[in-house]
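Extended Data, panel c. Modelled sequence:
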Amino acid sequence: MVSQPPQDDYDEKSARQKEIDAWLPITSSRNAKWWYSAFHNVTAMVGAGVLGLPYAMSQLGWGPGITVMVLSWIITLYTLWQMVEMHEMVPGKRFDRYHELGQHAFGEKLGLYIVVPQQLIVEIGVCIVYMVTGGKSLKKFHDLVCDDCKPIKLTYFIMIFASVHFVLSHLPNFNSISGVSLAAAVMSLSYSTIAWAASVSKGVQEDVEYGYKAKSTAGTVFNFFSGLGDVAFAYAGHNVVLEIQATIPSTPEKPSKGPMWKGVVVAYIVVALCYFPVAFVGYYIFGNGVDDNILMSLKKPAWLIATANMFVVIHVIGSYQIYAMPVFDMMETLLVKKLNFRPTTILRFCVRNFYVAATMFLGMTFPFFGGLLAFFGGFAFAPTTYFLPCIIWLAIYKPKKYSLSWWANWVCIVFGIFLMVLSPIGGLRTIVIQAKEYKFYS
């Protein structure tokens, strides 16, 4: 006869489980409105990468550039829809985290090994990039506002930028950062508008050229790959989408996918309003002479560019928090569930300060992170955004061969793998070129 485990033990366990879930950042508050998902998605999606889109266009050229931009918009909207649908496909269960969905599709162990490394590369990578971007924009703001000041090293500006996060990262969950996120989403629309409107008012430059800038064929090809990586990076918001949806309340009659999808559609319209005008107008005005940050090409009027840089700083503050939250969640889950730490405020204080300090230090050490972006962009952004949702969809729903769903998923998978293989090549070359003239902590 099998001895039954005492019921009290089980109740105690599930009570502890509930208590832990109520403490963890992603599952702790489920009362978000649909518009929370809209601005969380805008903040996660529209990175400072939008300012590099005209440059990516100059590397891709008109035809391929427009094709890749529009295709990416359609494909990522489709994969985002898949993620929203799959959040609650098992009745009574919610996949609150990307890796839980992966585990459902590929099995407990394999799901973790496939999803978690990629998700961590993306989220930590973005946090480091944003440390550098925030620091650079602050420095730009300082240099524009105060011409004759003593120049201050970028390293110190990154520290100043990080100081904000030592405070903000102690906000417990997604809903508590919705204010920060709203400000960030408004800022992203604002500086995108400044970027393209200021370009329009400047008018097409006299000696504008639209050909490829590189002298050699090899250079052109590598730049093309690198441009693909930049575009892939611009559309990477999928790593936090399930985590955002986890904050929306859900009942069997009104599942969370309704309000979430509404938010996503609004977010994607905003993304289109940010991306397409900046990319196409910026390239049209400056041609292949455009800087890898369009605000650098628009030198005057100084006050406007200074304002735009400040907007970038505010946006990046919000984005950093959104990408850091799932990492905090993973770290805290590991400590509390696996290593049996008590869920206390002190634990959270230590964990989050450590993370902010680590990303700050890495950002100060490797500020040529833009090149690293195309590199990481290919490795981790392309899979998690373009084709991992499709593979999971095929694994779970098993659509009929050659049906519309089957074709759509395979097209996305092929396009995504193409991005994943090609863009790191371009990124690596950029890093090699930039690293030649680089001094540590300069």
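DSSP finds 16 helices and no strands in the chain. This feature is highlighted in the accompanying rendering.
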